[in-house]
């Protein structure tokens, strides 16, 4: 780690201190306002407990949803505070605002070891603008700063970057440290062979990561909707499948770069096609050069799964980002679920498997193999940018390690 971490702070550094902790509690809710997946809350518990057990006054800050700079009742952090209280086994104070007299009074009334959760920081437009006065107001609540929100570390916002101008020390929490260690080690110093599985609907959203991985990995497996842009670039008919017409030259250049670098680039050999984009669509499996007019590809086929599994069999490190198909529809989730199970098997054999956030995480959780992966990233966008080799503003703002 090039940045200072929570482990560098002792009980003497923490006792009686007000510690502002940026967490990522942007969790999904159902229609009744109940949390459907508390992974991100549980991921922050080691940092919260360490601070609390060492006598700090723990002040948590998080965003929730996209309220566009104003209070939205359905985006208050009340259900998060309730769930966090359950997980910690004691009450968590939830403030009525992120800054201001009310928040100041509630923090001032906090005892050593207690946990306070500030209201949604994105209720203030100044948060995303990284406004200096808002950052200063947040910082005034605390004595030092811990960033444990990997999922927001790629944003230069007031609570991820701005506050570091007014607090010291500023360190990485346990979750952020773990994310950086796994993801950076995977691309900078992996056990080989290293395979990357990249899925999702569009090439355009994954250009940077594919280009970077072609410089790093031994094998690159591509799935999801983006495969049809590659097929069309090679002169194949793709029926009604999703294609980015303006990315055909790019797809051809990526194939050429893989050959030039000696990277084994695998595209599916068969696909599951549907007559409409719907969970109840008629579906059939066809070779990639036999997609019927008007039909669209929504998953990789069984021969492709077999091909991918064979390619992964000898790999010592695997990074996966993006589903193989429209896994939200059970009929078209087979390819994605098969890859998830395959990676669980590789982990059991000693390989390092890293699930890079977003839909890939939802997929391994849906299949029930999340606990069998080496590391599951809590940040989709942040993990992509880190894999691309970009500097994350929320990390750059922290103190350098001695």
Automatic annotation (TrEMBL):
Pathway: Carbohydrate degradation; glycolysis; pyruvate from D-glyceraldehyde 3-phosphate: step 2/5; Carbohydrate biosynthesis; Calvin cycle. Its EC number is 2.7.2.3. It comes from the Bacteria. It is found in: Cytoplasm. Gene3D superfamilies: Phosphoglycerate kinase, N-terminal domain. GO terms for cellular component: cytosol. Belongs to the phosphoglycerate kinase family. One of its GO terms (biological process) is glycolytic process. This is Phosphoglycerate kinase. GO terms for molecular function: ADP binding; ATP binding; phosphoglycerate kinase activity. InterPro entries: Phosphoglycerate_kinase, Phosphoglycerate_kinase_CS, Phosphoglycerate_kinase_N, Phosphoglycerate_kinase_sf. PROSITE patterns: PGLYCERATE_KINASE (PS00111). It comes from Synechococcus elongatus PCC 11801. The gene is pgk.
């Amino acid at each position: 780690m090039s940045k200072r971490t929570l482990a560098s702070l002792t009980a003497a550094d923490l006792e009686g201190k007000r510690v502002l902790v940026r967490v990522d509690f942007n969790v999904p809710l159902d229609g009744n306002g109940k949390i459907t997946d508390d992974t991100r809350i549980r991921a922050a518990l080691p940092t919260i407990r360490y601070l609390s057990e060492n006598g700090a006054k723990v002040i948590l800050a998080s965003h929730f949803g996209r309220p566009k700079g104003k209070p939205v009742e359905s985006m208050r952090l009340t259900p998060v505070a309730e769930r966090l209280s359950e997980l910690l086994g004691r009450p968590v104070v939830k403030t009525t605002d992120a800054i201001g007299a009310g928040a100041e009074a509630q923090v001032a009334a906090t005892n050593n070891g207690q946990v306070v959760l500030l209201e949604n920081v994105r209720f203030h437009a100044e948060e995303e603008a990284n406004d200096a006065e808002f950052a200063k107001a947040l910082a005034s609540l605390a004595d030092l700063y811990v960033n444990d929100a990997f999922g927001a570390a790629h944003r230069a916002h007031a609570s991820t970057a701005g506050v570091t101008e007014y607090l010291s020390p500023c360190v990485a929490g346990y979750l952020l440290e773990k994310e950086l260690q796994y993801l950076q080690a995977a691309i900078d110093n992996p056990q080989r062979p290293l395979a990357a599985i990249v899925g999702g609907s569009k090439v355009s959203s994954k250009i940077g990561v594919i280009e970077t991985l072609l410089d790093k990995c031994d094998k690159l497996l591509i799935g999801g909707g983006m495969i049809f842009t590659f097929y069309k670039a090679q002169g194949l008919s793709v029926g009604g499948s999703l294609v980015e017409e303006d990315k055909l030259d790019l797809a051809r250049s990526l194939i050429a770069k893989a050959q030039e670098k000696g990277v084994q680039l695998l595209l599916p050999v068969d696909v599951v096609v549907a007559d409409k984009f719907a969970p109840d669509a008629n579906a059939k499996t066809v070779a990639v050069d036999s997609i019927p007019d008007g039909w669209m590809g929504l998953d990789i086929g069984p021969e492709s799964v077999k091909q991918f599994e064979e390619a992964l069999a000898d790999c010592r490190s695997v990074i996966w980002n993006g589903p193989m198909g429209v896994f939200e529809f059970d009929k078209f989730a087979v390819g994605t679920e098969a890859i998830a199970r395959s990676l669980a098997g590789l982990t059991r054999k000693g390989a390092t498997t890293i699930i890079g956030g977003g839909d890939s995480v939802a997929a391994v959780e849906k299949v029930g193999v999340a606990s069998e992966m080496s590391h599951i990233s809590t940040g989709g966008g942040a993990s992509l940018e880190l894999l691309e080799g970009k500097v994350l503003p929320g990390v750059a703002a922290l103190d350098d390690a001695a």
